[in-house]
Amino acid sequence: MSLIVALFATLVLAAPADDPRDVAGWRDQSDALFARGDYRSALDAATRARELDKRDPWARYAWIRALAAVDADAARAAMPGLQDQEALQALPADERARLDTALGYVCLQLGLEEAAGMYFKDVPAGSQSHPEAQAGLAILAVRRGYSRQALIHFEAARAAGKLDPSLTELEHETRFQVELHDFTTARDLRDANAAGRAYAVLDELRPNHPATLRARADLAQLRGDAPARERALRDLLAVDRTAPGAASQLVDTLLELNRPSEALFIARDLAPERLAADTLLQAIERNWDTHVEAALAWRRRDGAVGRDRLELPQLQLAWASSHPRWGRLRIAVDALAPESGSIAAGEPYGSHTELPAAVRSLDDAGAGLLVQWAPRSGVVIELGQTPSSFVVSNLVGALRLRVNGAGGPFDFGLERLPVTDSFLAVGGASDPLTGRDWGGVTRNRAYLEGSVGGDDRNIYGNVSGALVDGKAIEENAHWQAGAGFWRRIASGEGWLARLGGNVTAMGYADNQSHFTIGHGGYFSPDHFLSIGPTFDLRGRRDSASFRIEGGLNWQKLRDEPSDYFPSDPVLQATSGDPRYAGSSREGLGARLAASVEWRISNRAVAGVRLEGMRGEDFDEVRLQVYTRRWDHALTEALREPPVAVLPPVFHDLN
What we know:
By secondary structure, the chain is α+β, with helices and mostly antiparallel strands.
């Protein structure tokens, strides 16, 4: 008997289960298969349900839902007229609301936004499905770009309780986009208060989102807080190194904060395209990268008599480097070999009112040192010494400050620099009668200069006051003021031409231009006036840049009478109280300078500069050949216009 029961049980278990016999059964089976991801079988089951009751709204819903997963195009085509309106009306209100909500989400899945909106809107406010339908309307509004309307629907959906995680995230993102739009509008309207309120919400919703960090940077810029903008941009780049424009904006901010080295490093690392196109950054790169410089120069200055003549060969070797923390450092060694003209017998010189015999040309040679340190951009400290082998050696130095204003740069500072108008002024001389040393003139000057405008129009000016002294010479006071303008007259691809005008006025308290004890042998008129037109032509072609500059001027000057020995009353008295006669002269002068620089490679350049001046008191010519070499390749080693290693003699040409 037991054997028969076991056999019967085995046959029962092995027999296939009966298929569902009614619509509800097939519908339930379709739901179960759909939940397991078996969409094809779910579609078959839903089809059987529809065949049993073609008017059943839920069977039609199960079928379209499965069809949407299997063949979206077929589902879109079948959606119009899917439901039987009489069957829908027969459903209870709450069930009808649940069905409309379900159909709305199918339409959302198929991209039938208009149909989805109609289904969701048909769900009445009091129904249990209303929050879910409102969530669907919120999703639809987000898709259509109606973020503010979406927030209203999200609020309604939340009325029934917490939203599911995906909807909560979508709501946060929608609110974030709304506030981001509000921030952008306030920023564009320059409304810092409204922008600040919008940013506070952004920071609460997405504190580390790239858009929030960019908004923080924009808000800092709107408030004029460059340090805060720098921090925000650095945070943004830490999150997204490729954030569009962020690296370039950080470069601009660092330049605004007067930190050019950091701007250069950011450009190199994160914005190489900016460095490739920005001439200012390229100039910073040339200055900050380690390099060596060499210049071989020759200078000749001719005055009215032989003792006024000066020939000055010069060789400068320099090394320059930098570090982000301690700034830029440049060390230069200058080898000088000045030589004067012969001094004829009968000329006043030293302690002689009349030399008993001619003195052959004087010469000397030596090397000086100059250290220049820029602890930060716009600040330069200089300290050096003229050659110790000269008859008179001097300490020199300077403190220079530059402020980059909105219109242009302004420079001011204090400096003690050698006067190089004559052999006596450069290094001093010994009296042929007594062996007494004198000369070695330095100018202790305070100055202020600046310019406003660009290449199209530019106005510049300068003013300075100085005390001029030296060994055994009378201290002298000096003032100078100048102004001028430039205006573009023509330009083309790679070149620019400007015309302008310049006026310079200066004066000295005493005439110390002679060569007896107490005088320094430097140009020191009671008053000097120069006025005239100037021109400037600069450009670049292939691997060379050039600049030609100069002008004509009308000059008027007056030399006051002066004692032969102003610093030695005893010698002046015992010599019969002799005095140099004063004079007054006027006439035309001319200035001309030309520079050309060639790029030898992407880490070396060579150049030449020739400059000259012809005036009422002296003529001067200077020639310089120079080179620079960096320790690695630069973006652009060539300067435009060229800048020689040794500074120009005639500052008003620049």
